[in-house]
Design a protein that fits this description.
Helices cover 30% and strands 21% of the residues. An eleven-stranded mixed sheet has the order 6-5-13-7-8-12-9-11-10-14-15, with helices on both faces. The protein is built from 19 helices and 27 strands. The chain is α+β, with helices and mostly antiparallel strands. The protein has four domains: 75 residues, ACT domain (Alpha-Beta Plaits, 2-Layer Sandwich); 63 residues, no CATH class; 155 residues, Alpha-Beta Complex (DHBP synthase), CATH 3.90.870.10; 193 residues, 2-Layer Sandwich (Nucleotidyltransferase, domain 5), CATH 3.30.420. It is globular. Bound molecules: zinc ion (ZN) (2 copies). The site of one zinc ion has 8 residues, from helix 3.
Length: 641
Amino acid sequence: MYFIFEIEFKSQKSYIKNLIQSYIEQIGIEAEVIQSSKKIYITIDKDNSQIESFLLGLEAVLPASIFMGQSKHYFIDDKPNVTDIEDYNLPLNISMCPNCQKEMFDISSNRYYYPFTSCNSCGGQLPFVQKYPFNRKNSSFKFLNPCPSCQEELKNNPFRKDYQLISCLECGVNLKMNDGKSERYANDKGSYRKLFEVASKAISKDKTILVKTLNGYRKFFAPKVGDNLDKAILLFCDSSSLNSKLMLIPQEFNTLLSIERPILRISTKSDDLKELFGSSAYVKYPDDGITILLAKELLTLGIKYVCYEEVEADENADFLIDFDLPIEPQKDTKLFINQDKTLFVSGERIVYPVVADNPKKVLTIANGLVASIVDDTTIIDAMERFESVDVREVRVLENEPIETGHRRERRFKLREASMLSVLKEHNLIGQKAVGVHFDSNLYFLYYNGAKVVDVIKPIEFNNSNLWEEIAKLRDGSDRLVKNYKNKFPKTYDELENLNGEIDIFIIASKIIGLSSVGIDAISKEALNFYGKGGIAIDTRIKDERFDNYAFLASIISYKLADVEPAMLCYSIYESFGDYIGEIIPQMSKSLETRNIILSGASFANQALYARVEKNIGIYKPLTNINLPIGKENAVFGALYL
Ligand SMILES: [Zn+2]
Ligand SMILES: [Zn+2]
């Protein structure tokens, strides 16, 4: 008889399993841990007297994770018959595990206030890695030698056994802070703590601080009413005020605090946040060591939240905190939660690097990411971390600014690769499917089991004669244009002078009068709508295609009727949901497949997603599982072109 502790885990990443393995070694219990494609199993002999204490301790060792689901335990006669997934030893870029965090706040530890504290199963490892395979020699840590105490840990601490990026205050990376006049160094317990103390005081006095974090340069500041916070991320210094300041469902709360620490768009609740951000904000809980320590010191000053912007190294600020080691940060990742569904929307962190199937042994390049072969394994990561490799074909995203010079270079479209990435994640390569790809344009696609083709393309939209086109739409349309010109002369002129190919959502957002433009602005404004249902916006289909001018004319007439922007934006998304809901069943019927694929970052919108669910929910549309629904999935999908 065996005691089994089973944890749902929907990722191939092995850091949770590895933490459990290290903990098993640390307490010396006879136990086995295995990870299948969906679950982690811990097996212990049922008579083992340590079971209870093991479980208690496990709770303290394991962080929350976005991949973790329910857990349960039971007794069973035979060990679970599952094969362990392969661990490819890829560097991580997540937050810190509970053990490492404890060390960082323990004054007796040699990592007290040391922001680069990490172990085999946590921390920002990837930014230091310069090439594969992952080892110290191939990282910017190569010039730092582990001190005797770290050497000892490499042998005897199960959590840092052979850990390639081991370091501590004694042998690690020094921080420095510059206020334009003088420089302050942090290289021991006292000076590290002092540096973060000084930095947080500066923020409390309305100074800005530019910080080199493991996730890129961030400019921290205390937000004030009237600041333009369009690009700001709201960083909470502790979890106790999350529920009083934000409208959170438990799943969002757990996701924010998970070891992966993604960015979430969340509705604001308290008056102070509503005044600063409006109805919603991008929210984050401190991720890397530097951000965690800064947040900790801000909290001791009574500051519950601050803002930061992702910026370049040369950004202006009152103070600069940095360190000498070069890093290659990843784009941070945004998540979208709609009821029981969690989607990666965009970004690289948490998602990449991954290992991918590469049946045709090709190399793919898209959006700065590369799928390349290292020792027979295909790894997807940033281009900078790969050396040149000899392959028979290179596949590059159209418009990717790169010359490969390869004799067989094939260019592909984002939408075909995106659709294939979803098909591959659901094991549907080779089967028929219809797809909807929605980024700044909306495409309907068909996959015949071999190739993705456009079924309905958006009508090319040329803005050079916008007003004439709208005026001749139908009887009375010329009056509509005239009325708009009288009421909003400034926008009228502005739109008349916009030439060339311009995204229809930029035009729509200008007509509505939003302060920022484009589909993101419309998506954000839609969240301000609290009513039950929107109004019908004309998407009058012309040869099955979306009629851009009818769509814009409809928005203009509602604008003239003083319909509030939030309702208009919400209705735009609803109308797209209805349009998709109309086309998909037709396509599914005529092309004889019930595999419906959705891709593109524009689906990460509550109004649209709910409408699509309502209209085509019975078809169970499929989306990416472990990859973003946005453009970062293309490098993976292109492997299966
Ligand atoms: Zn750790
Ligand atoms: Zn050390």
